[in-house]
TrEMBL record:
InterPro entries tied to this protein: MoaB/Mog-like_dom_sf, MoaB/Mog_dom, PAPS_reduct_dom, Rossmann-like_a/b/a_fold
Annotated SMART domains: MoCF_biosynth
Organism domain of life: Eukaryota
EC number: 2.7.7.2
Pfam families: MoCF_biosynth, PAPS_reduct
Name this protein carries in UniProt: FAD synthase
UniProt keyword tRNA processing, yes or no: no
UniProt organism field: Urochloa decumbens
Domain MoaB/Mog: 264-411
């Protein structure tokens, strides 16, 4: 069979492994379900084109292993029931490629013109269907939580979703298509890397050869597969855009700067809870966030347990704009931070090709055994924050950023990179300003005045701490308006003539 021979004869070991795993899933599906009760969802895209040929190869090998030699020539094209949801918004090239492919391989086509769910309901009523092959891959919007065999979602018609290429990357897809030299939709040679409808898909600008002539390189030349959906765009209403720009004047900018965004900090480490070492990075990060106008609402130290990390992330991610995690990264049994993040978002850990490449370059020949697990990242929600000064990208999962720093110098470097990376989401606002006043007055003496001051200066945070129980009391005044902070300080000092003096923030 030409597909099997092409892959097994290639020098790409990764491709051979991915292929072997995928065709095993195909063979397993044919062993579990009657052939007439299995279908294949084909949409003319690169992923379903790969899946078509994997099904052909898997079916061929399944028949071969069963000893049905007499039928070998007849099963090479695997005449599996094929479902095509035809849309008036589809590219003409997709439609023509789909019908041409179906004809070439003798696939019994069932075209559906309604939406996916309604179409499936009607199809399954007419013909018993226990399993459907689908070309879902990690990173697809609907891939989160799926396995290679996944029952359909609640509320949908009951069938088994079979996902042979779930763990394939963009690079794997093109490696297979080019190795096997099979035909694919012509749009991919025109710079399209992920094809939706005619209303939301354009060539990927990262493949542009010329900004004036609009010439694009083929899709397989995209070096970073994580950006395959960069050609998906939504057309917006021009009037809305103009109104938005027109209203974004100086007053709006000032208002944006005054907004206080909130962050949480989670430190993972049994050694801190045991008292073996102390957390210094959390305090340092608080100061850095404070300096860019962010408020820190919560700092927690949790155990090196997946559930402990997960529960804390779950609590913080919905309350704050950003969550930062220290510790628990690496190949050791106690490095559970990413697993905890994945559990908090209800996804699994899955191999990330780009991160694996970085690890290989960094670790060289030492990248073996358990260290491969370091390339497992939360599926479908991970974004790598690359920067030229970092040996490895920082990991961002929605609004959760995992930091690799172990000391203050490393934190300084990672923080500068985050501020220099737009994708980090660290919008710089107007910084907080603080004033610290020390006194030997008792708590009872100053309490009534501070209570009134809080009411009068509600935009200024007023807090207190003692250097020691018998020592001086420090009043902290913090806000984004320096004049208001100074006014509050002046009001306090005038209430107790000569009893307050300015002190350093660390004292």
């Amino acid at each position: 069979m030409e597909i099997d021979e092409a892959v097994r004869g290639c020098s790409d070991r990764r491709m051979r492994t991915k292929y072997a795993n995928a065709v095993y899933v195909v063979q397993r599906a044919f062993a579990l379900y009657p052939f007439e009760e299995v279908a294949f969802s084909f949409n003319g895209g690169k992923d379903s084109t790969v899946l078509l040929h994997l099904i052909r190869a898997g079916y061929y090998l399944y028949k071969k292993d069963s000893g049905d030699v007499a039928e070998m020539d007849a099963v090479k094209n695997c005449p599996l029931r094929t479902i095509y949801f035809e849309s008036p918004c589809a590219f003409p090239e997709i439609n023509s490629f789909t019908y041409e492919t179906v004809s070439t391989y003798g696939l019994p086509l069932e075209t559906i013109h309604s939406d996916f769910k309604s179409g499936l309901e009607g199809l399954l009523k007419e013909k018993p269907t226990k399993a459907i092959f689908i070309g879902t891959r990690i990173g697809d919007p609907n891939a989160v939580g799926q396995e290679q065999f996944s029952p359909s979602s609640p509320g949908w018609p009951p069938f088994m979703r079979v996902n042979p290429i779930l763990d394939w990357s963009y690079r794997d897809v093109w490696s297979f298509l080019l190795t096997c030299k099979v035909k694919y939709c012509s749009l991919y040679d025109q710079g399209y890397t992920s094809i939706g409808s005619i209303h939301d898909t354009v060539p990927n600008a990262l493949l542009s050869d010329s900004s004036t002539e609009k010439i694009f390189r083929p899709a397989y030349m995209l070096t970073d597969g994580r950006l395959e959906r960069a050609g998906r765009t939504k057309k917006t209403n021009q009037n809305i855009e103009m109104n938005s720009v027109a209203s974004n004047g100086t007053a709006s900018i000032e208002g944006e700067q005054m907004i206080s965004r909130a962050a949480s900090i989670i430190v993972v480490g049994d050694e801190i809870l045991f008292g073996t070492t102390e957390d210094k990075l959390g305090a340092a990060l608080c100061k850095k966030l404070h300096a860019i106008g962010w408020r820190v609402s919560h700092v927690a130290v949790v155990r090196n347990e997946i559930d402990s990390v997960s529960e804390e992330v779950e609590r913080c991610k919905s309350m704050d704009d950003m969550v930062f995690i220290f510790g628990g990264l690496g190949p050791l049994h106690s490095d559970v931070s990413l697993a905890g993040v994945a559990k908090a978002f209800g996804v699994r850990l899955a191999p990330d090709e780009e991160f694996e490449d970085y690890l290989s370059q960094l670790m060289g020949n030492n990248y073996t055994g358990d260290r491969n697990e370091m390339a497992l990242l939360p599926e479908g929600i991970t974004e790598l924050l690359n920067h030229k000064t970092l040996p490895l990208p920082l990991i961002k999962c929605r609004n959760v950023i995992t930091l690799a720093a172990t000391n203050a110098d490393e934190l300084d470097t990672e923080w500068d990179c985050l501020l220099d990376t737009q994708e980090s989401g660290l919008v710089q606002a107007k910084p907080f300003v603080s004033k610290h006043l020390g006194t030997t007055l008792t708590d009872v003496q100053i309490a009534p005045v501070l209570a009134k001051l809080c009411l009068e200066f509600s935009d200024v945070y007023i807090g207190c701490h003692r250097i020691s129980r018998a020592g001086p009391l420090v009043v902290n005044l913090t806000g984004k308006d320096n004049q208001r902070v100074e006014a509050a300080a002046e009001k306090l000092m005038s209430s107790f003539e000569g009893q307050f003096s300015q002190v350093d923030s660390c004292k």
